[in-house]
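Progress report, Aim 2. The chain analyzed during this reporting quarter is listed below.
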Amino acid sequence: MAIRLLLVDDHSIIRAGYRQILQKHRDISVVAEAETGQCAVNCCKEYRPDVVVLDLSIPFNNESDEVSFACGLETIRKIVALRLHTKLLVLTAMSNEPFPTQAVTAGASGYLTKHCAPEELVVAVKAVAKGEQYFSASIRNEMNPDSETNAPLVNLSKRELEVFSMLAESFPINQIAESLCLSPKTVHAHRANILRKLKLKNNAELVKMAVRYGVAVN
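Predicted structure tokens for the chain:
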């Protein structure tokens, strides 16, 4: 029986590329696509896919143009909460820690970067469909606590990392507060802690670090 697959990415051309790669294999069938987290959750309820391949940087719904890794993590958690035994494979541009670990903690079974070879994507889909975990070699190195390449972002808490991601994408404090169900005062406090922990002086330096570690685009 073919592996039933749901593709989740907010760029239709990227989803089309994935579909072309995966559907060359008779034992893989793309049953649905989604461009937001909420759409992905709804598709899981309707199609009950075996595997969801998703980007972390997606909007959660169409009412907001907010795109952040926090939305991707929330999507993973909501799909896991459905208890459909659907496996989740992250395919994203963010390769540095703590993003892989955060994704696994949320419920992902595998993690690839968008630099992976098409063949590796196929191998990863088949592995997680069988209940295995799959991480590309570079991601395994990042997740190794002894790795010298670990980003300083590992020093941030889960909530601080969410705030960091949204600050890096230049979201206003009030919008961050509303999105994360926090007060603006609390967001300001998180921002101060982030700058202190990362030894940064201002948002400009924060954005530069985010670009360096793949959290934001240049």
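The chain has two domains: 3-143, 152-212. The beta strands are 3-8, 28-34, 51-54, 87-92, 110-113, 134-135. These observations will guide the mutagenesis work planned for the next reporting period.
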